[in-house]
Amino acid sequence: MHTLILHDQAIEYRNESQQKPPRKLAETKQISADAVLQAAKQHTATVWRGDFYQGKQLLDAIKKRIRKPAKSADNPADAFHKYRLAQSQQSREINMLLIEIDAHFVLNLPRAPDVQAALLDVYGEYNSERFLLPFNQLLGFIGAHEWHKKGVVIAALNDAKIHVPFGVFSPLRGEYLDLILQAKLPENCQLAFDIGTGSGILAILLAQRGVCKILATDNNPRAVQCAHANVARLGFDLQIDVLQQDYFPSGLANLIVCNPPWLPAKPTSAIETALYDPNHTMLKHILAESGNFLAENGELWLIMSDLAEHLGLRDSGSLQTWFAQFGWKIAAQWETAPRHSKAIGQHDALSFARQKERTYLFCLQKI
After folding, report:
1. Is the C-alpha dihedral spanning 286, 287, 289, 292 positive or negative?
2. Which class does domain 152-366 fall in?
3. Which of 75-80's residues contact partners 24+ apart within 8 Å by CB, and which partners?
4. Less packed terminus of the chain by CB within 10 Å, N or C?
5. pLDDT tens digits for 90-139?
6. Buried (b) or exposed (e) across 65-99, using 16+ Cβ within 10 A?
7. How far, in Å, CA of 224 to CA of 268, rounded?
């Protein structure tokens, strides 16, 4: 937790991104986007005191000024790192426009909406003290809350919905879920582990396919709560237990499933840990330790994308090398092409790689 000084008093500063807090604060009801950005260069954040919707317009103007086309790069890895650096710099500048949240998540700005439910969804309990928050993150919380209520339709679940709050990775990319339905389960599959369950979607798919018992683990309290709620809502709470812990529960499973982060890069926020993992640490741990938690003739199912290879972040063939290094053979392999908007669009800075991407389900057995 960070504290800043406002009116000679300490006030908490909250930011979901791993950014350094501003050194100074300035308050205003009227200011230009250029002035906010100029103050940000001096490590001064602007606390917005004006009309809520005028604040949104100011935020939009800031984004238009700083969002520029990606710089050219000599190779895919350079393109990725420049893209990530630009994202980080833009996020820092955008997050220098702040709003103050009063006790019990009250936003005292003219024409401000009721943000209590959205903030309670994020933080889990009401605040007794005021705090500062990036305006852009508040809007993100509001949008995430609406998606949490609405839910994401999952075709692999016969169009049932998964409800995902802020801070938990949403299964919007449905192509890898179809792979889980296609693969043949190990014989007499009585017990399965879902490692890093997130929303609980993989555990739910296995329960739908008839696996008697699934133990789903995650070290993110938000994910555990989310998975519990989805499992109960869809009626699988007798088959699935959700546990807050790292990696493997006790026992020997017939099947272990895992969808580890796909890109070997440093996350800049908690939600990005579902996407980025330096040096594929989680993947390698899963490969190294899963054999100790598998029953005889058990299988490890890994969901992986080859996007890292197209971005020059991982050598082609590295996955197969690691499989062999840790004593695994590929018993079956399934693949599909992504269908999300970035994979087919031309305007994303990394579209050159996304358009070549394939997502794989590797069904592995111990050698």
Report:
1. positive
2. alpha beta
3. 75/312, 76/310, 76/311, 76/312, 76/352, 76/353, 77/311, 77/312, 77/313, 79/311, 79/349, 79/350, 79/352, 80/265, 80/311, 80/312, 80/313, 80/350, 80/353
4. N
5. 999 999 999 999 999 999 999 999 999 999 999 999 999 999 999 999 99
6. ebeeeeeeeeebeebbeebbebeeeebbbbbbbbb
7. 21
